[in-house]
């Protein structure tokens, strides 16, 4: 809260001006807001809050991408289990969100606007960029309104979970026991066998492939697919500087100079006093200042804005309109070096000192003109694109793609088959897939509304519909052979490790809980789960197998109790959050 009145704040409540700009930007939309058209099919309803098909596909796409980073063969992903897991997560997060709403937790639109403007994902060269914002949320399948609603619900739900997490604590005895376990070492003999290096014997028989096929039929089920035709109006990237009139450049320069003159920056310091006695305390502090005490020293001693107190109350340079109105009005009335009487704001009472005022020096016309010329040309380019896009949308609404093609000299392109869950090429974009499967396009056979992607704007229509089906064994034979080979190599590695375990001897190695010397962490985790004196074959998800004999266990020594306490508290916090989610889901009304 206290960072609200700072110029260089990184908090979410930073500048009132920021909120106003964001509100204007987010209310106006026009071309950039994706319009998918049609209804919103629902996959579940939690406490009267719907989870739409678009929500589900978006989350499924993200989870599938993460899974693909962990496995080499996409066929190894259990699609049915993945879909079930994603839906369960959405139900749980929605249950938490509705629980937070029911408890009266809230988050203002102004705070949300500030969060959006400060998010690095929406910035270009450190500044919020409207086009970047539209592109990012569009790729995720969100409209501006939809994204704001989603983000606000998540922030409110996080207030509930973070409030629970902040209450986590750990007893000293638990910390001591954990430190002892953390420092534990285990001495063992081991021999490893890499599955990928095992020699294959023979080829899979038809029976082998049939058995694998029947065991994994869900992996070979093709969903409903579409083929779409579309016309893309590309976003122009080249600007014609010669088309810019010099009189326009001169006008833009005059506006630039006038803007600098009107935007004087001030540097202020303040002492903030809060609570019921804030006014009396502020008057007492002012008396000490009038008696000759240093403002910086008093700010460090008294101010309850901890961040600025560390630097003698300094708030840095800020443009007009940065602070709350009461603070702003008091600052404008001060001369450099003058200190105000106590000023009341929603945060408490302030003593404000104006330490410096400055007006930025304008660049010369010759130095600034190339930048202004580029901006004017880019603006003209953008306006022309938006006009063409609007005309394209009007024609597509009442006409056909051929008319759009002929008017703009474009090409009607055809996609590869794509499903709701995945696509290639341009249909990797979730928003386009949702639009294609929407009632407006799919059921009525109409053109879609105007859709935006990074490359430009487009209109699509469904050209073909492919019913869901189970791929035949022959179609997936190569995948089955790959799976058979992986299983055979894993079995060979396990057999070799089992044989080696019988005669395991020789030098020992000592391990801590963190893997070293190229030994996988997953193996170390299994080693530390073994009982004393254990001998076993340990198999990893990769199929690699290890013959392991646990020779001895040495207890560790206690150290860095503070870090361990913090770690254990964070673990307890995560467990508490997970339990809260489970509870919220169990107590929610869920319709699937």
Task: Tell me what you see in this structure.
The protein is α+β, with helices and mostly antiparallel strands. It has four domains: 2-170, Orthogonal Bundle (Triger factor/SurA peptide-binding fold); 184-216 and 475-554, no CATH class; 224-243 and 366-467, Roll (Chitinase A, domain 3); 264-358, Chitinase A, domain 3. The chain is 47% helix and 17% strand. It is built from 20 helices and 19 strands. It has helices at 16-27, 53-68, 79-102, 109-118, 130-139, 144-165, 172-182, 206-215, 246-262, 278-290, 295-302, 306-309, 325-332, 365-398, 401-408, 430-436, 439-442, 477-502, 521-527, 561-586, and strands spanning 42-46, 49-52, 123-124, 127-128, 185-193, 221-222, 225-234, 265-273, 314-319, 343-345, 348-358, 412-414, 451-453, 456-466, 469-470, 509-511, 535-539, 545-554, 590-591. β1 and β2 (49-52) form a beta hairpin. The relative contact order is 0.17.
């Amino acid at each position: 809260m206290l960072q609200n009145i700072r110029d260089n704040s990184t908090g979410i409540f930073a500048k009132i001006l920021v909120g106003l700009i964001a509100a204007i930007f987010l209310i106006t939309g026009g071309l950039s807001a994706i319009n998918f058209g049609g209804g919103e099919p629902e996959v579940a309803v939690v406490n009267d809050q719907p989870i739409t098909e678009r929500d589900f596909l978006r989350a499924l796409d993200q989870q599938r991408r993460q899974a693909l980073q962990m496995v080499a063969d996409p066929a190894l992903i259990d699609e049915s289990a993945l879909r079930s897991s994603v839906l369960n997560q959405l139900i749980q997060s929605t249950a938490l969100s509705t629980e937070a709403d029911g408890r009266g937790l809230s988050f203002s639109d102004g705070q949300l606007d500030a969060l959006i403007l400060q998010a690095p994902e929406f910035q270009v060269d450190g500044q919020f960029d409207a086009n970047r914002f539209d592109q990012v949320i569009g790729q995720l399948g969100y409209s501006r309104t939809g994204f704001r609603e989603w983000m606000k619900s998540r922030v409110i739900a996080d207030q509930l979970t973070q409030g629970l997490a902040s209450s986590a604590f750990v007893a000293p005895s638990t910390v001591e026991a954990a430190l002892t376990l953390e420092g534990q070492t285990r001495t063992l003999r081991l021999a490893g066998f890499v599955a990928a290096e095992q020699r294959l014997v023979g080829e899979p028989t038809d029976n082998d492939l049939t058995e694998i096929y029947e065991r994994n039929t869900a992996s070979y089920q093709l969903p409903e697919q579409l083929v779409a035709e579309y016309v893309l109006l590309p976003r122009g990237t080249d600007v014609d500087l010669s088309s810019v009139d010099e009189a326009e450049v001169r006008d833009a320069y005059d506006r630039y100079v006038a803007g600098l003159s009107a935007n004087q920056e001030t540097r202020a310091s303040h002492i903030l006093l809060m609570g019921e006695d804030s006014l009396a305390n502020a008057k007492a502090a002012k008396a000490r200042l009038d008696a000759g005490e240093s403002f910086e020293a008093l700010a460090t001693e008294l101010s309850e804005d901890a961040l600025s107190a560390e630097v003698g109350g300094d708030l840095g340079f800020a443009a007009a309109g940065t602070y709350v109105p009461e603070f702003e009005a008091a600052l404008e009335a001060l001369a450099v070096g003058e200190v105000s009487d106590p000023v009341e704001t929603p945060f408490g009472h302030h003593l404000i000192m104006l330490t410096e005022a400055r007006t930025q020096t304008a660049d010369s016309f010759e130095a600034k003109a190339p930048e202004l010329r580029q901006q004017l040309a880019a603006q003209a380019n953008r306006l022309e694109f938006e006009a063409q896009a609007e005309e394209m949308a009007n024609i597509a609404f009442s006409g056909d793609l051929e008319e759009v093609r002929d008017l703009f000299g474009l090409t009607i392109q055809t996609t590869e088959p794509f499903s709701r869950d995945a696509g290639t090429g341009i249909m990797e974009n979730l928003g386009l897939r949702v639009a294609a499967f929407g009632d407006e396009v799919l059921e009525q056979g109409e053109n879609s509304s105007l859709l935006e992607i990074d490359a430009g704007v487009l209109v699509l229509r469904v050209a073909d519909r492919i019913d869901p089906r189970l791929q035949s064994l022959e179609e997936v034979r190569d995948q089955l052979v790959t799976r058979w080979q992986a299983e055979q190599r894993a079995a060979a590695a396990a057999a070799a490790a089992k044989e080696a375990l019988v005669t395991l001897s020789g030098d020992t190695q000592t391990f801590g809980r963190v893997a070293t010397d190229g030994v996988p962490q997953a193996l170390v985790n299994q080693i530390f789960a073994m009982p004393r004196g254990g001998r076993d074959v340990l198999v990893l998800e990769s199929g690699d197998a290890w013959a392991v004999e646990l020779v001895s266990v040495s207890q560790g020594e206690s150290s860095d109790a503070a870090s361990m306490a913090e770690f254990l508290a964070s673990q307890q916090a995560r467990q508490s959050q997970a339990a809260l989610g489970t509870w919220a889901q169990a107590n929610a009304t869920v319709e699937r």
